Amino acid sequence: MAYFLKLKAWELFLMVVLPLILTYMLRFEYTATLIGSLVFFVVIVVFSWLFSIGRWANQHLPQDRQKNLFPLALGFAIPLIYILLLILVYFPTLSPESRPQPPGWMLPMHILSMIGIFYSIWFSARQYLALQREREVDTTRFSNIFFLMWVFPLGIWIIQPGVNQLFDKLDNSNILSRDGG
Q1: DSSP tally for the chain: helices H, then strands E
Q2: What is the pTM of this model?
Q3: DSSP of 32-79
Q4: Domain boundaries, the chain
Q5: If you ran DSSP here, which 8-state letter would residue 96 be given?
Q6: Considering only Cβ atoms within 10 Å of each terminal Cβ, which end of the chain, N or C, has fewer?
Q7: What is the mean pLDDT of residues 24-38?
Q8: d(CA 147, CA 24)
């Protein structure tokens, strides 16, 4: 997952935007399944980036400030399962002529997905800023990072350069400590 930590902001931005632009330029027919698949791809990229930041920052914090990664992984897994269920089960039933009643599982899954995404962004923002500042941070300190992660296309341009810089700094110090220098 260190791959996402090494990317420049423009590279990560293009990973998200390029598929959307290409489907428009190539004049694909916008079906519910195509839109769902595009959303799934974008979500995979964004969640991988956020998970990479949260996991990496958590691993580099002192042992007493590290948190359990299971809720972070679960917070990302639930929305992915929800999107897959929408693509595979619900979207094929949609047509311009009929509007089927949404299934009963849709609302609870949507609420669980939102809670999972909220927690995962909160976790990643908190651990990243704690690593950056080298101390415990309170909610008011990391709320700006949280907001920038929430509005990903904008936030990437501000957050990713700091992630690159911190990653390079810690990566170089790890290489020096392994080499004995």
Answers
A1: 7, 0
A2: 0.86
A3: HHHHHHHHHHHHHHHHHHHHHHHHHHHHHS-GGG---SHHHHHHHHHH
A4: 2-179
A5: S
A6: C
A7: 84
A8: 29
The two structure tokens encoding residue 146:
């949280």
**Residue reference for tokens 């704690």:** 130
**Closest Cα to residue 76, out of 131, 115, 35, 34?**
115
Give the tens place of pLDDT for each residue, 126-150.
Answer: 999 999 887 777 777 778 888 888 8
Whole-number average pLDDT of the chain:
87
DSSP code per residue over the chain:
-HHHHHS-HHHHHHHHHHHHHHHHHTT----HHHHHHHHHHHHHHHHHHHHHHHHHHHHHS-GGG---SHHHHHHHHHHHHHHHHIIIIIGGG--SS--PPPPTTHHHHHHHHHHHHHHHHHHHHHHHHHHHHTS---HHHHHHHHHHHHTHHHHHHHHHHHHHHHHHHHHHHHHHHHHT-
Whether the Cβ atoms of residue 107 and residue 47 lie closer than 8 Å to each other:
no
CA-CA distance, 80 to 140, in Å (whole number)?
29
Q: How many CB atoms lie under 10 A from the CB of residue 119?
A: 16
Please give the pLDDT value at position 173: 67
79, amino acid identity: P
Name the DSSP letter for residue 93.
G
| Exposure class string for 80-100: b at 16+ Cβ within 10 A, else e | eebbeebbeebbeeeeeeeee
